[in-house]
């Protein structure tokens, strides 16, 4: 029974948040969500603990330990929230690239040595805001 790749009905039925699951295994909520959506792999002990919490089989836990095929694929996302991140990169991608190069030199921000956090910023005047913080190791291009 393959459950990886979507938000598990067992998680919803248990009334658990990604933060709850992250706390149970000592991981960040965004990373746990990535794991349950098939975008990360877990060590066996963490996968087994999640399987126990969610009431799924050890076979499902085993699946969580395998390296996944990552990414959404070659299509433009249609979900409005996900599309906005795509739109942000379409509009601000090159400006971000140039600013990073000005500050660090010729290289990239790692998506492997990387963390991301999502926070809520209350704004009673204009409406609450979503704060996304990304932190990735800078990797300079090698010269040889």
Automatic annotation (TrEMBL):
Key words of the record? Lyase
Which residues are in the Cyanate lyase C-terminal domain? 71-144
Tell me which SUPFAM superfamilies the record gives.
Answer: Cyanase C-terminal domain, lambda repressor-like DNA-binding domains
Name the Gene Ontology molecular function terms of this record. cyanate hydratase activity; DNA binding
Asked whether the keyword Protein biosynthesis is assigned, the reply is no
Please provide an example of a Pfam family that matches this protein in its UniProt record: HTH_31
Q: What HAMAP family has UniProt attached to this entry?
A: Cyanate_hydrat
What role is this protein assigned?
A: Catalyzes the reaction of cyanate with bicarbonate to produce ammonia and carbon dioxide.
Q: From the Swiss-Prot or TrEMBL record, give the protein name.
A: Cyanate hydratase
């Amino acid at each position: 029974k393959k459950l990886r790749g979507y938000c598990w009905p067992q998680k919803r039925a248990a009334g658990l948040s990604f933060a709850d699951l992250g706390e149970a295994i000592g991981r960040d909520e965004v990373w746990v969500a990535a794991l349950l959506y098939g975008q990360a792999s877990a060590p066996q002990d963490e996968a087994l603990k999640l399987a126990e919490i969610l009431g799924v089989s050890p076979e499902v836990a085993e699946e969580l330990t395998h390296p996944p095929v990552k990414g959404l694929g070659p299509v433009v996302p249609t979900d409005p929230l996900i599309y906005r991140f795509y739109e942000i990169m379409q509009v601000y991608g090159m400006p971000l690239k140039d600013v990073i190069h000005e500050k660090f030199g010729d290289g990239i921000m790692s998506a492997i040595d990387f963390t991301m956090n999502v926070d809520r910023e209350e704004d009673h005047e204009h409406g609450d805001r979503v704060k996304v913080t990304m932190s990735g190791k800078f990797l300079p291009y090698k010269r040889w």
